[in-house]
Each structure stands twice: as C-alpha cells, then as structure tokens.
C-alpha cells in the first residue's frame, strides 16, 4: 500500500526582500536604543526608558530572525517562541519600572520626551512600512511585524504623554503610557507564542514517519 503520510516541505529559499527589510529595521532599532537610553535617563522618563529597552529587544529579535532565514519551519517557530517570551518579559519589566517610578515620584522633562518621541515614531513608522508586506507570514515574520507595529503605537503614546506632562507637571501621563506599552508587550508576546506553538505542533504532525 502506498504511503499516505504527509511530510514537511523542504525549507524555502530565504526571501531576499525580507532579509533587506530586517537589516534596515535592525540598524534603525540599534541606533534608537542608544538615543532613547541616553534621552530617557536625562529626562527621567519611564516611557522613554521602557521604549529604549524595546528598541534593544527588537534589534536582537531582528538579528535572530536574520540568522534563521531559510531554516526549517520547526526552527523558525522555535526562535519565534523565544521571541514571544522575550516580548512578554519586556512587558513585565516595564510594569516593574512603572512601580519604581511611582514610588520615587519624579516627574519627567517633557520637551526631551516629546522630541525623542517624535524621532522614535519616525523610525518605527519606517520599520513598520518595510515589514508590512510580511505581516501574514509565519510566526517569525509575524513577530517582527508586531514588534514594529507595537513600537509605532507606543511612540504616539509617548508623544501624548510628553504633552500631558508638560500641561500638568505630573508624572502620571508618563506612567500610564509605560503601562500601555507593557500591555502591548504582553499581548504581542502571547500572539507570537500561540502561533509558534501551533507551527511546532504542525511540524511534528507532518514529520511523523509512515507505519
């Protein structure tokens, strides 16, 4: 009797356009990590500091994604699974930073927040634009798109927080935005983890040997 088992197809050839998009996003995120790290420390802004960590995490994620292009579905999904946990861990870390900032009660400097927030928004819109075409791909592609999308949303919120701090002199707008970014990290991480687990399960079914 002929074998009717399904097998995982051979890994597809790395998408050159996706590779270029990842390199662009990697370089932009690495630069913005340094800009926001320094700016966030200078302005005493939880939102900027949190966003700098997000830029760093995204730069690492893009680098890892470049490393597994052309690998099997199982390994792409495994890397995406790790990235999903990193995104969720980022959300937890930001929540801890919000609590720390609340306990100290230092209001951030709004002008620096606003200027860097606008610069970060431009950077993330560029990243989201170059990665938009790959948003419906596998879990690895989806994860890099979600990172850029979440960052762009977060940057709009940082700008609004800067306006709020400027108008009220309170640290609450900064803390609220940081909390929103934490939620984005947690929900985005959950989406990536769920899809990565589905793909790993699919691979195991496809690779089951014929009896």
UniProtKB/TrEMBL annotation:
Membrane topology type: Multi-pass membrane protein
Main location: membrane
Signal peptide location: none
SUPFAM superfamilies linked: Cation efflux protein transmembrane domain-like (SSF161111)
Transmembrane region(s): 20-39, 59-77, 84-105, 111-132, 152-169, 175-193
Gene3D superfamilies recorded: Cation efflux protein transmembrane domain (1.20.1510.10)
Ranges where the Cation efflux protein transmembrane domain occurs: 22-198
GO MF annotations in UniProt: zinc ion transmembrane transporter activity
Keywords annotated in UniProt: Ion transport, Membrane, Transmembrane, Transmembrane helix, Transport, Zinc, Zinc transport
Subcellular location field: Membrane
Gene Ontology cellular-component annotations: plasma membrane
Name of this chain's protein: Cobalt transporter
Organism from which the protein derives: Acinetobacter amyesii
